Amino acid sequence: MTKDQLFDQIKKKESYLCVGLDTDIKKIPNHLLKYDDPIFEFNKRIIDATHEYCVAYKPNLAFYESLGAKGWESLQKTLEYIPEDIFTIADAKRGDIGNTSGLYARAFFEQMNFDSITIAPYMGEDSVKPFLSFENKWVILLALTSNVGSDDFQQLMIGNTDQHLFEKVLEKSQEWGGPEQLMYVVGATKSDMFSKIRTIVPDHFLLVPGVGAQGGSLKEVSEFGMNKQCGLLVNSSRGIIYASNGEDFWEEAGKAALQIQVEMKDYLNNYL
Ligand SMILES: O=c1ccn([C@@H]2O[C@H](COP(=O)(O)O)[C@@H](O)[C@H]2O)c(=O)[nH]1
Fold first, then answer.
1. Does the interface ipTM go beyond 0.90?
2. Which Pfam families has this protein been placed in (predicted)?
3. Most buried among 37, 69, 182, 234, using CB within 10 Å?
4. 173 CA distance to ligand 1 centroid (A)?
């Protein structure tokens, strides 16, 4: 999916919501455990209930890989079930020396047909470039993450400059790819940094986790992070998929997604 096509979807659905498919076998309702593939059955119902209100789905690989071969199967089936016009993100946080990164890229872009993958930038250019050589596929580079530990490295000042390490990541990585194939992860819990980030990457999309369960503010992210093509994919995982753990879980997930979409519609009208 191209940047313009993603923006078209955002305008059509009046939404920049990404639903996180962090499907935990220990958290899904008991009645699904009778199925052969409970994870897929859960995801299928979540997708049915939320697809009208979101423009992206983001399965986090940890939830699938932790189940071994069966988890990979559930992931593949889930990916195939997601409607064609919805952007897909493999939240895998990969990155290694070049030849290894190339194989990770083939795993997620060829074996599986994800639109994008999250990548850790720590190993530098040769670890990221192999992911950028695939047409119509996106790299989403971790810049300023939502967790407390982002203080440890990402928010360190570099040498005698007034630049944080995450700002250097934003600046340097623009030599590797443009806004048509690179996005950045910026946590919703870091909304005070969005204005500064927009001065460095005015045109790129930002994937923003951290609203809902982590307490980030959708309003602040939208006010300070939106650009002329929206430029935001705001993720909520637990806040949507575990809105209820009863038999009605999918209905409640649909309502939780709708509630965010309605708020997003307002912000698109106000800030776009
Ligand atoms: O900085 C980051 C990067 C990734 N994540 C991931 O996003 C979701 C958030 O889930 P919630 O339940 O909405 O809190 C999850 O998959 C994280 O691993 C992040 O939170 N922060």
1. yes
2. OMPdecase
3. 234
4. 22
